[in-house]
Write a structure and sequence with these properties.
By secondary structure, the chain is an all-alpha fold. The chain has 6 helices and no strands.
Length: 186
């Protein structure tokens, strides 16, 4: 598919799932607060758009850096990926010990802020994809579809289950990102 080997395509899908875990966790947390269905759709659409555009921008930056600095950029972005994964795990542990996010109000600007917050990791992953020489469109489209679907799933589950599972999704996503960072390092 577009020059991707099955292994590379599965790697992109795993990265997309890892990136989408933040959106899933956010969805569970916000869904537990009784978010209106209209806002569920708006938030999921905004998250999908950010997960489409930020990796494309990141790939462009990665291409420019790789052209000037070569393999060292791949090592640096692998470290960034491991850092992002560990940060996701740390955030989930903080949530577990009682550091709660601020209360949610469904204004458009807040939806954009939440969506950007869970999508900013996609910029760094796009940077990584750029250093690996991948064409950006397929990964960005996969990231957008997965993040939209998982944010809707998280919002639905959150409405049903009262927000107790959010940290587990974040831990899983963080672990996948950290391990993929290790894979890219070697």
């Amino acid at each position: 598919m577009f020059g991707y080997t099955p292994l590379l395509l599965w790697t992109v899908i795993l990265i997309g799932l890892a990136l989408s875990m933040d959106a899933f966790s956010l969805g569970i947390g916000l869904g537990a607060q009784g978010l209106r269905w209209r806002d569920v759709g708006r938030l999921s659409l905004i998250i999908s758009i950010f997960h489409l555009l930020l990796p494309l921008f990141g790939v462009w930056i990665g291409d420019v850096l790789y052209a000037h600095f070569g393999d060292i950029v791949q090592k640096i972005t692998a470290v960034v990926m491991m850092f992002l994964g560990s940060q996701m795990i740390i955030k989930s542990i903080q949530y577990e010990v009682g550091i709660e996010p601020p209360p949610f109000r469904a204004h458009l600007l807040q939806l954009v802020g939440f969506a950007f917050g869970v999508s900013v990791d996609a910029l760094s992953v796009g940077l990584t994809l750029g250093t690996l020489g991948m064409t950006p469109v397929v990964p960005a489209a996969i990231f957008a579809m997965l993040s939209g679907a998982l944010s809707i799933a998280g919002l639905y589950i959150g409405r049903q289950v009262n927000g107790r599972l959010g940290r587990y999704g974040q831990v899983a996503g963080g672990a996948v990102l950290a391990f993929l960072g290790l894979k890219f390092f070697w």
